[in-house]
Amino acid sequence: xxxxxxxxxxxxxxxxxxxxxxxxxxxTAPAEVYQGVxxxxxxxxxxxxxxxxxxxxxxxxxxxxxxxxxGMLQELDSYSQFxxxxxxxxxxxxxxxxxxxxxxxxxxxxxxxVVISPIADTPAHRAGMLPGDLxxxxxxxxxxxxxxxxxxxxxxxxxxxxVRITLARLGERSRWDVVIERQTIKMxxxxxxxxxxxxxxxxxxxxxxxxxxxxxxxxxxxKELIAEEAAALILDLRGNPGGLLSQATQVADLFLSxxxxxxxxxxxxxxxxxERGEEMRYSQRRPLAADLPLVVLIDGGSASAAEIVAGAxxxxxxxxxxxxxxxxxxxxxxxxxxxxxxxxALKLTTALYYTPSGRSIHRQGLALPRxxxxxxxxxxxxxxxxxxxxxxxxxxxxxxxxxxxxxKFGLEKADVDxxxxxxxxxxxxxxxxxxxxxxxxxxxxxxxxxxxxGRRLLSGGGIVPxxxxxxxxxxxxxxxxQRRRIFFDFIVxxxxxxxxxxxxEDVDDRMLSAFKQFIPTRRPDSQxxxxxxxxxxxxxxxxxxxxRAPEAKAVIDTLAAILQGQRGGEPFSPAVKVFxxxxxxxxxxxxxxxxxxxxxxxxxxxxxxxxxVAIVGNLGRYRRxxxxx
Length: 629
Known about the structure:
The protein is of the alpha+beta class. It is about 45% helix and about 20% strand.
């Protein structure tokens, strides 16, 4: 038997198995579909057989076939994936929200693993581990210089097994050992809940996931808030990448009236989803909170299941959505276990999500020929989108961004103002490179969709908020301090030096002064101004080359003064000091009171939270925004 014949027979067996097990195609698929599969496989088999027979060196057929599978799936979309044993284990962990370990988040500090945060009610928490504790040995083996990946792998293991850890804490004279029994760790979907203003209940699912117990956690939080007589609710879905569809519908159930539509699922396989290839999910139960004013917070990191909940709340006029436009991940992935192999699976996009009004949540990807760049036409200039976004993201002030764009590209002020008021999605559309499939080509105009009360909705991918509020980002200087985890390192050292005398979470002037002196003690590559000064020098040269030096000078001098001020020991500027205090308070709360206190501290000076509290506190405005008069 020839190699090509063997490959074709193996492929036919795989196709038949897939049809029987995974229902990849409906039973009514036309004969030409199978003919196309056979023709394609003949072509692939011919190429593969020549590679095997004639390539100049030996081949790893497992790696070669994995590359072929990955390449095929990449041509479909970014969400379809093949999972080997390790990938499948991680996938199951993400969807169940469980793994076997100790219950700590770990980083690296001074070349040793450091405890960033123990999870409440886990073995690590019960063993007394605190943020900042150094893990100096595991099972007697020194961990100095050990990679973070290796540390995490060593700490995890089978439930019920034990691990001996040697800890060191600043301010303690000696190291000590703890023996901890590994347990199945449940990652919570509700990070924190409580009243953040009188009568305003807050449930945070920020940067968590929709896993198997999400709806039960949200329900428990709701019951507690209702028992505390909360008069309004805020559901925080910012940065939540989604998860299980079943949990999204059950969370929506808690707020919507029985029979309200939640989401429709449109797929190719009509045998499973009805003759029109569409299945609508409706609220099935009596809601816990059907009448309380409700605000849902979203941002560009809210995706999938988070977008389903936000879209259902918005379309049914059950509450208001506040923040920025969500990510636009509105596709359904089905997991197909590959029974011909052990511990392998295929995650394949099989359908799209639509909100009750008929809006597609999914944001179409970029169909861009390889090797080309996106360019936005501005006046007589074609500006690369990537370079444009880099400049805008690098500054915290619209005036500074305007000066840099005008200096770099020779743009008129009107063109720059137009760029700065344009969303990323609109920039991509203006570049002329937004790839759309046949369904997207017939996308409805924004006015085609309305809520139950008749409010008009915008479409085009993602959930567009009812009230758009941009979160104020810290200045670049502070973001660099955060990125290098200098706030965390300082608090660990500061509390170690203070001993047990520091019991409050206030950031006073003495702590600010100590923090300012602490920054230069970090390694040179940890000092955030070095890279910034190099960028400013490059910008000065660019301004001179483009004859825009006078226009850019004021902005460059201002930035240079800020950097020099931080380096020279002068007081933080008022704008910087606000964010420095907030960063210190967050880490101080984590060290003294735990992760939930730290998350609540992070909400201070959060303009989106402030706007949400203001709206639910003014019922007249709330009802007007909902279109209810």
